[in-house]
Write a structure and sequence with these properties.
- This protein has 293 residues and is of the alpha+beta class.
- The protein is 56% helix and 8% strand.
- It has 12 helices and 5 strands.
- Strands 1-2-3-4-5 form a 5-stranded mixed beta sheet, sandwiched between helices.
- The longest helix has 32 residues.
């Protein structure tokens, strides 16, 4: 029986963990797994990679509104913040609106308004079709893409007198918004991170497997089907996943996790090629030479 064509004697998932141990085993154990086994391995890899990211997300103390409404929050520059801080405030630092509506900024980028009354229809009419931020006696409203509104009531401890710069005003508004919507915000960030990691991982897996599957058209290599190429790639994600997890615990950034995964995965593929040349005959000759020593 040819090297690499026999089924592993180990039961799943031990056969997968044995296959990911080194470059030779990653190549030799290339018989496709059953669909449910493949799905289990893919979900396991994605879950392990997302774990450190989830830990970092759970530790967040504040999330900037710029992540959800960047165009609108960019309107709150230092000049707008300075104007806003000069308006009269109550004993707890909250805004006391002027007697009539006031525009702090209105240009091609968007609008920043002070509205004397909290009127939903007026808010929608004032901010419709443009990025914008509006401050009313009870709340602030930020428009996002597609004219969606993010609305947040002022917290009793909010003090706009101290928000004299764009950064300090952003922190003040973001802090109030995060405190009142923490669970929804964290869940949204987690879902987005999971999707980013999952889609990027699947693109790498299926893409490289497709490239390796072209070897079936030549007798030089021993990979004879897409399924075998896919299993080799799946085996090669073992150690790269460990690298990605370590990067995740250090940075918590999904982009860094994917970068570490991609570099380690390509290094593993190159290591497998160097150790096996993707040829059963080469592996057999190498093992025979080692036994003769």
């Amino acid at each position: 029986m040819k090297v690499g064509t026999r089924m592993s004697t180990k039961a799943f998932p031990l056969n997968y963990f044995a296959a990911m141990a080194g470059p030779v085993s990653a190549f030799k154990e290339r018989q496709p797994l059953k669909f449910r086994q493949t799905l289990a391995v893919i979900l396991l890899i994605i879950s392990v990679m997302i774990l450190p990211i989830a830990v970092k997300i759970g530790q967040l103390k504040i999330v900037s509104l710029e992540q959800f409404a960047s165009q609108s929050m960019a309107l709150l520059d230092d000049q707008v913040a300075e104007q806003l801080s000069h308006y009269a405030t109550g004993p707890n630092g909250q805004l006391v609106m002027p007697s009539q509506d006031t525009s702090l900024r209105d240009d091609d980028q968007g609008r920043v308004l002070l509205l004397a009354q909290d009127d939903s229809q007026q808010l929608e009419a004032s901010l419709s079709g443009k990025a914008g931020v509006a401050f009313t006696p009870e709340r602030f409203v930020v428009t996002t893409a597609g004219n969606r509104f993010l609305s947040q009531a002022y917290e009793p401890e909010a003090d706009f007198r101290t928000a004299t710069s764009a950064d300090s005003l952003n922190r003040l508004l973001s802090g109030q918004w995060f405190q009142n919507n923490r669970l929804a915000i964290i869940l949204t960030i987690f879902i987005n991170s999971w999707l980013l990691v999952a889609v990027s991982f699947l693109i790498m897996l299926f893409g490289v497997a497709g490239f390796l599957s072209f070897m079936k058209f030549t007798d030089i290599f021993s990979i004879k089907s897409y399924g075998q190429a896919f299993r080799v790639c799946l085996n090669c994600f073992g150690w790269p996943t460990v690298v990605a997890v370590l990067v995740g615990f250090v940075t918590g950034n999904p982009a860094h996790v994917l970068t570490g995964l991609g570099i380690a995965f390509m290094a593993m593929i190159m290591w497998v090629y160097w150790a096996t040349h993707f040829q059963d005959a080469y592996v057999a000759a190498k093992l025979a030479a080692q036994e003769d020593k």
